[in-house]
Design a protein that fits this description.
about 475 residues, mainly alpha, Growth Hormone, Chain: A
Length: about 475
Amino acid sequence: MSSAGDTPRAASADETGRLSATTKFGWAAGDFGFNIYWQTLNLLMMPFYTDVLGLSPALAGTVFLIASFWDGFADSVIGAIADRTRSRHGSYRPYLIFASPVLVVCFMVAFLTPQWEQNGLFLYALASQMLLRTAYSIVQIPYSSLSARISTDSDERAELAGWRIAFAMLGGVVVTFAMPAIVDALKAQTGEDNAYAYVIAAGLVGLVSLPVFWLCFATTREPTALASANPRGFSWSAIAEDVATVGAIIARNGPLLRVFGCMIVSSLAFTMTNKCLTYYVVHYLERPDLRQYILPFVLFVQLMVCPLWAYYARVTSKRTAWLTANVLSIVAYCVFFLYDGRDPAIAAVLLGFIACGNAAYLMLVWAMIPDTVEYTDWKLGQRHDAKVFGLASWSKQLALGVNGFVLGMMLTGVGYVEGGAQQTAEANEGVKAIMTLVPLAGLALSAWFIWGYRLDRLLHKDIKAQIARR
């Protein structure tokens, strides 16, 4: 049960669902910490596997694919456990304090570089990434579930998602600049053969996340009115009940399935671009010295425009904002593909326009998913916040895994050679095609998914009213 300190007067939102500035800042800042890890997986891990650890592109991609299927099991279990957790701090907030130090340790372990053959390296990369993803989910799923608890207002959630993704991109800016800079500095002082440079860099940037998680814990509250909105108690029968509930959510929550579809295909789209950025800068532009600047620049652009997309979604609708972003992204990708120069400044501008469109998808999925929690409550009679967000987390991580596998196969297909070797012109052109043509297909699919999304603010308001009358 909640403690006396979590009284209605101390709740995060007033009766209208509006949040205080302190709560908005504290909760949204949490995603700064998470994206130290997520953007590393997204942007830096694949090049680390191929160019530092020495894995072939195909094996590196397979690591991402298998690890993402593990997430399907782990995230569902974590979501069910979080929903049934009861403590004086609430159901979700305790994980921000007690599980986050373990995440830092797992992050460091993922960057060890054992001197093994390909099969051994593959098994180590797979085991360490599965460990990292599990630790990440134990903290991240409860954190995301808080967004459905601290406010029930659909427009407020859109604004909150905009600020959340802005902080997420800030975390990405920091880690994509700091990790390479720390590694380069350590190698300059101790020699290029410093096997622990990446481990030390991961530990230093990981420690930055801890006070951010603790700030999020301190500035949020779980309303006591929702303390019993989820099932409680741990037992063998509870496992069967939770499995059945997950199946019912998938079967009866149409809006959530559309969001999942959008999340998967859009993540496949912009993650393909992001994963190829290091290869593009180092080999296509032949400017490895710009690696630690162009990657953070792309994320900085997303940081700046996320609040603008949140505002646009509030004055129109989340569906309209998504379709508008589709148009912008498609135009930007086409222009980038047709530009065959190697001027870093022009390339950065074009990548910036791509980032403007991609920022909308990052923000909108996390603005729409909390609304589907009430939809689940309407259909099933209970909210199941963390189960919904566990499924959402798996959809995102599945996209990352499929993306990594497909990218590994495609890099092999265009003739990319592992180990940081000089690449052929054909391989470089292939990398550019991968980071533009695959995303275009994903964007077209996401427009098809979102076209039928009908959970707008009016329907959401009506659903909340029906739940209140029960």
